Amino acid sequence: MIVTLLLVVVFLSVALVLAREGLWSGLVMLLNIVAAATFATAWYGWVAAKVEASMPSYTYLIDFLTLWGIFAVTLLLMRLATDMVSRTKVKFLRQVELVGAPLVAAIAGWVMVCFAAASLHTAAVPRTLVQPTPENRMFFGLAPDRKWLSWVRWSTSNGPFAYPPESAVVFDKEGDFILRYADRRLKLEQEPALRVNAN
Question: 116 is in which domain, residue-wise?
């Protein structure tokens, strides 16, 4: 229930803010959100592995913090770049603006829900807080986390974020992301503290 409420808040916050900015700003921001969230999801594992090598006792916190850190930095940089490139807002017919702005805002809100839902699997929380079982579908059965993971898997194998062909690296190639992190959160529950081998 807490996770569903959190995702509803994410959706409403993003959708309401972007709906007020208009259709053009909403389209630009939607592009930024999709690109930043996909980039963060596709590459956070590599960055987390580097960080964890130097701070192994924080293993349960690193993935979540790295994922959101990369997303925030990438989104900020993309927003600055698109604001510099797109100094003039494109004007749309009033009817198009009235229908398009809320629609694009809702799509951006849904993308953020998908990304946030997937990121919750990496959080240092009890196993059942995210989902009662890994097989359950989040957010009223819509499973935004699974949709996001499928998108990133496709985009890193064939899409715009594909790794170089010679590396043969695909995000969540085996499709076991949710199960792996469910097991990881179960191990966390058995630890006395968030830090591993804390002195």
Answer: 2-189
